[in-house]
Structure formats: C-alpha cells, structure tokens
Specification:
519 residues, two-stranded parallel ribbon, disordered N terminus, disordered C terminus
C-alpha cells in the first residue's frame, strides 16, 4: 500500500497536468454518481415541502460542491474544463429553447403577449433605475464597467426574463396547465423568454461590434460588411435548415430506425454550426445556438429525436456537473468571507422586492387593460418571476468577466431558487380561490323570478302517472300571468332482458364499425 502513496511534493497543478482522458471520464462519473445518490436521498424531504425537481438539483449541486473531499477532487481538474462543459451545456439548452419557440409569434398580439410585454417593460424600467446601486450595495465596489448602458440593459432584461421550460414543467406536474390561468401564464412565459432572448442577442451583437469598432483597423465599411454578412448568414440558416431537416425526414420515415449516417450528419452539422458560426454572426456560443434553434423546424420525427437526446444530456450530464461547479466556485470566493457577507440577505430581499414589484406592476397594468381581477394579476406577476438555469449561467458569465461580484452572484442564485420554490404555494392559492368562487346554478323554485317563464321536464312511465303530473303542473304554475312550458318524455324501464344498441352519429361513412352498425 505504501507504493501507491503519492509524494507530498506533488501539487494539484501537477496532478492536473498528468490527468488524461480516462481520468476526466472517471472524475465526471464519480461526480454524476454522487449527485444521483444525493438527489435520491433528499428527494423525500423536498416532496413533503412540494418543491419541484429543479430546486432539488440546484441544492444538491451546491451542497455537493461544498463538501470537503468533493472540493479537493474537483480542484484536480482545470476550471477552464468545467467552464467549457458548462458553456456547451448552456448551448444545448439554448438550442432546445430555440427549437421549442416559434418566432412568428411576435407578429401577433394576443392577451398573453400584452401581459408579457407590459411585464418586461415595467421590470426593465424598475431594474434599470436600481441596478447599479444594488450591485454596489455592501460589496462589488471594484467591478468594472457597471455603469455601462449596455450592461445595465442586459442585466435588467435578465432579471425581467422568465424561464418558460421551468414554468411549463411546474404547471404540467401540478395538472395546472389545462386551466385558463395555466394556459395564459404558459403563453406569457413563452412570449417573455422569446422577447428577452432576442433582445439579449441584439445587445450582445451590438457590444461585440462596439468593441471591434474601437480597434484602429476597424472602419465604418468593415462594420457594414459585418452586419450584411450576419444578415445573409441568418437568411441562409432560415432557408437551408428546414430543407436539410425535411431531406433527412424523408430518408427516415416513421416505423423504421434512423440511419447511422443521417444521425452522424445531423450531430456533425449542428455541432459545426454552433462552433464556427459565433465568429461570423458576432453572437456568443449560447446565443448562436438559440438562433440556430429558431431556424430549425419545430415538427417532425427528426426534431423529436433531437429534443429527446438533448434533454437527456442536459438532465443527466450537463446540469449535475454545472451545479456542482457553481457550488465549488462559491466556496472559493474570497469576498464572501469578508465583513460584507452580512449584507447578502439584505441584498436578496431588495432584489426580490424590486423584481417582483416590476412584474406585479406590469401584470396589474395588463389586468386593467384586459379586465383581470387584481388577485389574479398579482398571481400572474409571481408566476412570471420564475428564473431558470440559463439566467444563472448569464450571472456566471458576468462574474467571470468581472461585471458582477461573488456576492451579487450568490444573491442572484438565491433569488432564482426562491422564485421557483414559491410557485407550488401560489398555485395552491389560485386553486383554492377558484374553488371558493365556483358557484352552482340554483334549481329550486323559490330562487326563480315569479314573472319569468317556468320550464319543466316531466318524465312518465305510464298512464297512471298522468293525473299526478297534471296536478304538479297546476300547483307549480301558481296564479301569475306568465306561461309555463312543459317538456314531456316517455320513460322505458330497462332490465336484464333488454339490450340497448347505441349508434354514434359522428362516425365517418368509411368507418367499418359505423357501416356494420347501420346494416
């Protein structure tokens, strides 16, 4: 056993350089197995509190990333490796978002769009006026470029966004998505996230061009050429990707397994576009994946296979590693150990109140326009406050580029968890309120207007019931002038010797069962 003991002089950097592909695979396997065991261990406790699975995944990753032996184990690998894997995972997540969204929705203004746009506008205005003071409250004094208009607008759009996949999953698991308010809020979440993602992409493109224009060799002509080339590439993607997908779907009809060469071509083409197009389009890798997803067809067997594969990769590989990496980074932040740590929960309170006030204000304004009651409008604002993994990734990107400090990132992370964890209780409140307001029609005679017409349905079995029925009709009519309408039906007693044959009248003429029944 002493021969297997490593010398004390070997540092973590040396072990990281000696690590190869097998070591990396073994390390990730250990992280995934530990994450799965911890997730199953804490799942019964969170079920009692009715918390969704995404909260369990975030809390398990944060806890596992702060365990002593796991921190030492993860520190053997380079932080750039985890950053690259996290960026690939968020690119897959953005690709799934783009495929699920229909960009033509922006050309319509249903009630969902009105609520979404008013919520975005009000939240951006409220957050933009308080973003810089909130960032500098207590800590983050040395962050660069926090007074930049582009950064403030991007941060405001991030906090104004809604994670529609998380919101849809919460509603579906609670059987709330089929209700009227569930359909309304789900549509609002789609409009909100689609709009904020597009605006964030425009800001990212403008910022990259602004940085390039500061270079001495950059001219107006070069910027114009870059813009025209971006538009041409987007147009080619919008036209070529559906053709490629339709060609693959014709070669792989339903009922037959997909050909291996087509699977390799699909994965290779999507990976190549997500890898090389950011340099041409001027977007980030995640935003480029989102644009590619918008251009990809939303229906078909190929889309279903792609979405199923990406969702499995995100759930079982990328998200566990990403949340564990976040937990390890939080443990390594030095400014959290300073005296400013006591301001974190104060900052969390103000951030939650500011964002929530913007969402509720927009929901109340749209409620006045569309005729919602104010409790429902407040509930809609709380629903649209949900954040997801992509918003946490944007905050991580801001920390790495020194736009946001560790304290602000931790506050934003706690806000994301809090915004998701309160949703089950809000749904319970809405359901209870709907049940209290549910009224049944009053069928007793004393509740009807004596001056209105009385309509009765009378059922008789035979002639012996006729005198009694006539007496009941005369008593019910009273002495007033309004007339009475009586609907009579002949009731036939059915016993075991009789058999009833029902022929539905909505079947097609070419239906075999309908033809047999008619004969």
């Amino acid at each position: 056993m002493d021969m297997l003991k490593l010398p004390d002089s070997i540092s973590a950097e040396t072990l990281c350089r000696l690590a190869n592909g097998n070591t990396l695979v073994a390390g990730f396997s250990f992280v995934l197995i530990s994450f799965s065991l911890l997730f199953q261990l804490i799942r019964p406790f969170f079920r009692l509190t009715k918390q969704p699975p995404i909260v369990l995944e975030i809390m398990a990753g944060l806890f596992l990333g702060n365990v002593g032996f796991m921190v030492e184990y993860l520190n053997l690998f380079s932080s750039h490796t985890f950053a690259a894997i996290s960026e690939i995972g968020m690119s897959c997540y953005a690709l799934v978002l783009g495929i699920n969204f229909d960009v033509t929705l922006l050309g319509h203004t249903p009630p969902e769009a009105i609520v979404a746009y008013t919520g975005i506008l009000s939240t951006v205005l409220v957050a933009a006026t308080t973003a810089v003071p909130l960032i500098h409250f207590g800590f983050d004094h040395d962050m660069k470029d926090t007074a930049n208009f582009g950064f403030i607008l991007a941060l405001s759009l991030t906090v104004a966004g809604t994670s529609s996949p998380v919101l849809t999953q919460l509603f579906t698991e609670a059987n709330f998505s089929r209700s009227d308010i569930g359909k309304l809020v789900t549509g609002e979440g789609i409009y909100t996230e689609l709009t904020t993602m597009i605006l964030l992409g425009i800001i990212s493109f403008s910022r990259n061009n602004e940085i390039d224009n500061k270079k001495p060799s950059r001219s107006i002509i070069g910027a114009s050429v870059s813009f025209v080339s971006t538009v041409l590439v987007l147009y080619c993607l919008y036209k070529m990707l559906p053709l490629l997908a339709n060609w693959m779907q014709k070669n792989n009809p339903k009922g037959k397994p997909m050909r291996g060469i087509d699977v390799i071509l699909l994965v290779g083409s999507m990976s190549s576009m997500c890898l090389f197009l950011p340099a041409i389009l001027g977007f980030s890798q995640a935003m480029t994946s989102f644009v590619i997803g918008l251009c990809f067809p939303r229906k078909g067997r190929l889309t279903y296979v792609l979405l199923r594969t990406l969702n499995q990769l995100l759930r079982f590989f990328f998200f566990p590693i990403y949340f564990c990496w976040i937990g390890t980074n939080i443990r390594s932040y030095k400014d959290l150990k300073s005296e400013s740590y006591k301001y974190i929960f104060v900052k969390l309170f103000f951030l939650y109140v500011i964002i929530l006030s913007g969402k509720i204000l927009g929901a109340l304004i749209s409620g006045v326009i569309l005729g919602f009651h104010w409790p429902i409008a407040v509930a809609i604002g709380l629903f649209l406050n949900v954040k997801g993994p992509f918003h946490i990734f944007i905050a991580t990107f801001a920390v790495e580029n020194e736009f946001m400090g560790a304290g602000s990132f931790l506050v934003f992370l706690l806000h994301a968890v809090l915004s998701i964890s309160v949703i089950p209780y809000i749904m319970k409140f809405v359901i209870q309120k709907a049940q209290m307001e549910l009224t049944h029609p009053l069928m007793a005679l004393q509740w009807f207007d004596s001056n209105s017409e009385l309509r009765m349905l009378v059922g008789i079995h035979g002639h012996q019931n006729v005198p009694t029925t006539i007496n009941l009709m005369e008593i019910s009519r009273g002495s007033g002038s309004p007339c009475i309408s009586v609907y009579l039906t002949d009731l036939i007693e059915m016993n075991d010797k009789h058999s009833a044959v029902f022929i539905p009248d909505y079947q097609e003429d070419d239906c075999p069962s309908s033809a047999a029944a008619t004969k």
